[in-house]
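Table 4 source record.
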Amino acid sequence: MNIKAVGIAAGMVLASTSAFAQSSTVTGAAGGAATGAIVGGPVGAAVGGIVGGVAGSVIDPPPPKVVTYVEQAPAPTKRVVVKEKVVVGQPLPETVIVTPVPDDPKYAYAIVNDQRVIVEPSSRTVIQVIP
């Protein structure tokens, strides 16, 4: 396989990364390696494994019922303000209290800097910021 073919295969895998991450049909290094092998053979498998590892770490959005619950949950009486920017994929500061979503314990939420955020409870990682 020549260098140009490897470059084309890598480009195709990179271009399709967001589609794979959004559909969640092929995720992680294993899925990326399989896709890369189909597109570019053994070298494509190596490139696909790396790209798939990055795409597989993308956080899946919570189900609509969780988003609706967080949107409608009453705001606490005490306003929480932090200096850090609230970013998807990053944990909330320890000073922020997170509240579990009653019907789905895989999720919790907080209202920080007047933004409602959905988090993964054990790591406090922000999954979604609701505008």
